[in-house]
Amino acid sequence: MAQDLTEIRQQITQIDRSLLKLLSERHRLAFDVVRSKEITQKPLRDEEREQILLQELVNFAESQNYQLEPQYITQIFQRIIEDSVVTQQVYLQKKLNQQREQNIHIAFLGKRGSYSHLAARNYATRYQEQLVELSCSSFEQIFDKVKSGEADVGVVPLENTTSGSINDVYDLLQHTDLSLVGELAYPIKHCVLVNQQQDLGQIDTLYSHPQVIQQCSQFIRSLDRVHIEYCESSSHAMELVASLNKPNIAALGNEDGGHLYGLRVLKTDIANQPNNITRFIVLAKEPLSVSPQIASKTLLLMTTRQQAGALVDALYVFKKHQINMTKLESRPIYGTPWEEMFYLEIEANIHHPNTQQVLQELKEYSTFLKVLGCYPSEIIKPTKA
């Protein structure tokens, strides 16, 4: 006799609640770990230990005949390890920078429900209990609000796995005195949002931000005779579609934002790439002190002499000092035709003696060199099993 579905679901609910309790207990243990490492000054991450842990878990599950795939176990515990690492990073950073719980004013692009808003909230809630959200209509306005002190921090997108670098932000970084104090990655899951239940064939107009349109170009080409209306942000598009309340229009945006505006999801997973992720940077008026125990990054702004091999000579400095460069971006210098400004992101703490030596040597090969910021990364590379 088959078990009643209601009873089965009740059992699943009880198991899920037990799992939550265990996850909470493991999360609390992360604070005991970081306090111990704070005394010994050991690095937060021990990737060898993490690899051993994953292998032991897979072996244990196999020995107990739990019938769980190794990949499934690995993915779950990679996420648990990531939470532990970020939790410990936040603990050390708040203590090092003498940061107390208080309201934080945070500026982002678009209205509530935009990807920038969701990413900003994700970042701020790790460091503060309460936040005051400041909606902005442009990247420049975000920079201005932080510069004036109206916002404590600003969160802006820097690059996307589908559409690439966001040049407007890079150009603003050329002319700012603000400092980078953090970074995070946020998954982008575009969907078609409508007012009423309808089919795609009824839609003749799509509203969204240019970046979203670009990231969903393949899906858009699959539609017949659709007109594109560009908006300041995906949240503006959702608000507009909700207010117009017409059966022939739709917004491209995220599901959580759509719910805020009373919109329904007509189709999901419409981005060109399934793993569509945007990397955001966090800006503040003052630079941040970064614990030497934390994996950190530094973003440099540099110009080189206009001669053969000048950039190669500069980059060789990083190789010589065994510093990994994770990003190299170039942008035109306004008012100076055919010359480029280089953005170099390196995995290094600016306060480390080795990094200081690198900066000294770079001056020999550059005509301009500026540190845009040193910051802990919340983009945790998964442990390889």
Element layout with pairings:
Layout: H1 5-40, H2 47-63, H3 70-96, E1 103-109, H4 115-127, E2 130-136, H5 139-148, E3 153-160, E4 164-165, H6 167-174, E5 179-187, E6 191-194, E7 205-208, H7 210-215, H8 217-221, E8 227-230, H9 234-244, E9 249-253, H10 255-260, E10 264-268, E11 277-284, E12 296-304, H11 310-320, E13 325-333, E14 336-346, H12 353-362, E15 366-376
Parallel strand pairs: 1-2, 1-3, 7-8, 7-9
Antiparallel strand pairs: 3-4, 3-11, 5-11, 6-9, 6-10, 12-14, 12-15, 13-14
Q: Keywords for this structure?
A:
385 residues; alpha/beta; Chorismate Mutase Domain, subunit A; D-Maltodextrin-Binding Protein, domain 2; 4 domains; 6-stranded mixed sheet; 15 strands; 42% helix
3D architecture notes:
There is one protein chain. Helix content is 42%, strand content 27%. It has 385 residues and is of the alpha/beta class. The longest helix is centred in the first third of the chain and has 36 residues, at 5-40. The strands form three sheets. Strands 1, 2, 3, 4, 5 and 11 form a six-stranded mixed sheet that branches. It has a five-stranded mixed sheet with strand order 8-7-9-6-10. It is globular. The chain contains twelve helices and 15 strands. The two termini are 42 Å apart.
Q: Classify the helix fraction into a percent range.
A: 40-55%
Overall form: globular
Number of domains: 4
CATH class of the largest domain: Alpha Beta
Rg, Cα atoms, Å: 24 Å
Show unreliable segments.
none
Elements, N to C (H/E): HHHEHEHEEHEEEHHEHEHEEEHEEHE
Keywords: Amino-acid biosynthesis, Aromatic amino acid biosynthesis, Cytoplasm, Isomerase, Lyase, Multifunctional enzyme, Phenylalanine biosynthesis
GO cellular component, one term: cytoplasm
Main location: cytoplasm
Pathway: Amino-acid biosynthesis; L-phenylalanine biosynthesis; phenylpyruvate from prephenate: step 1/1; Metabolic intermediate biosynthesis; prephenate biosynthesis; prephenate from chorismate: step 1/1
